[in-house]
Amino acid sequence: MPTIFDWNQYSMVVPSDMLLNKDFSIHRFGDLEKPWTELPKEIFVRPISAWKPFAGFSCPREFVKSETNALYQLEHVLPHEMVVVFPKQDIMNEYRYWIVDSKISTSSSYGWEEDHDFKIPPAETDDFVKNVIPYFDNIGVTDFVLDVAETDCSFKLLEINALSTSGWYGAMNARQLIIDIMKLF
Fold first, then answer.
1. Shortest CA distance to 159 belongs to which of 114, 103, 97?
2. Domain 93-182 falls in which CATH fold?
3. What is the pTM of this model?
C-alpha cells in the first residue's frame, strides 16, 4: 500500500525545482542490468518504497550488474521491486530535520564516513526547510524527517521519512525532540 513516504508520492508534493533529483527514470530492479535499459553514465539508485528493501547506491553504469547481484544476495531484493534512477550528483553536505507539528524541532548534519563531524546546519538550510514544510502541511503531513542536500549552489530536498525510522545524529537536540513529540499527546 502506498504511503506519503514512497518516493513517487512525496516527490509530487513539492515543486520539482526544490528536489535534488528531479530528472529520473523508474524501472524494475531486475531490469537495471538489461542491455535495453537506458541509464545515465553515473547513477544513483533507490527503491521507491518507503520500506527501503535496500539503501540507495551510486555507481558507474558499467558496475550495475555487480551492484544488483550483491543486493540480490545480501538484501534479498526481488527483481520486481520498483526503483528510481537518477543521474549522480555531487553533494557537499547532508542534513536531517525532525519536523514535529509542522515546525523544525531539531536538526543535524549526517554522513556515512567514520570521521564525520556532526554539526548544526547553517541558517540558510533552516530557511529552505521552512519553505518546504507548508507543502506537506497542506496535505496533512505534519510529523516527519526531512533530508536536505547542500550542493555547491543551493539546498535541495533529498527525501522524507517517518519520525520512527529516522535515526539520531550527533548535533541534534534529542531533548527538544522528545519535548516536542510529547506535546502531541
1. 97
2. D-amino Acid Aminotransferase; Chain A, domain 1 (3.30.470)
3. 0.92
